[in-house]
Amino acid sequence: APEPLRLLRWLRRLSDGYVLHDEDVWLKAEGPVSIGLMSELREDSPPMAVLSLRGPKAAQVLSAWAGKAPPEAGRVGKLGDVLVIARPAPLTKGYDLLVEKTRAAACWSQLVEAGAQPVGWHSATEILGDDWLAREQHAQQLVDPTKPFFVGRKKFLEKTEKPHSDAKAFRFEAAKSEPKHTCLYERHLELTKRKNMVPFAGWQMPVQYSGILEEHKAVRTAMGLFDVSHMGVLEFAGPGAERFLDLVTTNYVPMLAPGQAHYSYLLAPDGRCIDDIIVYRLERDRFMVVVNAANADEDAAWLKGILEQRWAVDEKEPFIRIAERVEMRNLKDPAECGELARGTLRCRDRGLFRSSFAWLSRSHSERPWAG
Question: Phi/psi of residue 330, each to 5°?
Fold first, then answer.
């Protein structure tokens, strides 16, 4: 079969998960996606043709034809109704033009008038073929062995030199400190005896109010209110947030729609469970992760270290990097969270939490509290 059709079938089968591409039968390329030949007529778009410009004057000719500067190397832009793909820097400089087939002849003539020299296919086969091949001096830039996965990666790395890495094995030692107080600490003291305020996961928390039996009954038959503000809350934002969280947690993050959440795990490279967490998708590129209070500092150190490429995410291949554009913030840290956290602290200091939750006073309700 012609090469484009073979490639099309291979990509479609990868997308649908119908072919094996690794010894791990559970490993799958992301999909499914719609894959088609742009040269063929489709319902959503007309058939397209590709014209290629190569040579030291390619940018000059393209600018003269379009009347404005072409996109930079490795970028894509529109010049009129023509999609212009600027070649990536590791390859020979030049441009590929994606144009409707019905306009291809006119574009060809206009480019010749602007100074382009037509090149026959005998020369084109050698020039363009050599241009696309991963020549030895380009191999390092065309294949990135630090990527966590690509089809054929394992076999490729068997034949190439492994890159150096300064990433270290993750180590964490919790700092010793006095138990912290939540913003409702003073309110708890008013509602229960001081002896019922006990250390829990590094925080001073109420172990009970009216009594264990009564509180269980309240939760099962009416309503129980819990203070869970000791939990750790992290935010991840940016175009790489989904990819990053999908790689460092065990559940499938792309399945989440904005407003949805799921239960998941954070695992260390050796398979140890660092923590069980809840991942919330707030917007397309913004997530909130709630972690257990006892593990909050370790979770933050692990995730921040991965973003800064200080920790090895694979024991056998420490050179693997998760290089995503992500902003990570601790939403309970005023220094990281900005005005939102500072406003919360002002509310606490002014006693606004107490006035806002005055309706919860036991004198106004017969419902027992749940500690």
Answer: -90, 110
Rounded CA-CA distance 62/69 in Å is: 8
Q: What angle do CA 84, 88, 93 make, to 5 degrees?
A: 80
For residues 85 and 76, is the Cβ–Cβ distance under 8 A?
yes
Query: How far, in Å, CA of 327 to CA of 237, rounded?
Result: 5
pLDDT for 170 = 92
Q: Among residues 4, 101, 95, which one has the least CA distance to residue 48?
A: 101
- The rounded distance, in Å, linking the Cα atoms of 332 and 144 is 37
Options 3.30.70.1400, 2.60.120.10, 3.60.21.10, 1.20.120.1730; CATH for 143-371 is 3.30.70.1400
- Please say whether the beta carbons of 316 and 309 come within 8 A: no
Domain 3-133: state its class.
alpha beta
DSSP 180: B
pTM for the full predicted model = 0.72
- Domain boundaries of the chain, sorted by first residue: 3-133, 143-371
Name the region of 326 (left: φ>0; alpha: ψ -120 to 50; beta: rest): beta
Query: Looking at the chain, which runs of residues are DSSP E strands?
Result: 48-54, 76-79, 82-86, 94-100, 197-200, 203-206, 232-237, 261-267, 273-283, 286-291, 327-330
Task: At 77, give phi and psi (nearest 5°).
Answer: -150, 165
Asked if 54 contacts 96 with a C-beta cutoff of 8 angstroms, the reply is: no
pLDDT digits (tens, 9 = 90+) for 213-264: 999 999 999 998 898 889 999 999 999 999 999 999 999 999 999 999 999 9
pLDDT digits (tens, 9 = 90+) for 63-117: 999 999 999 988 999 988 899 999 876 666 789 999 999 999 999 999 999 999 9
Q: What angle do CA 325, 327, 328 make, to 5 degrees?
A: 130
| 189-195-196 Cα angle (round to 5) | 70
Neighbours of 66 (CB within 10 A): 19
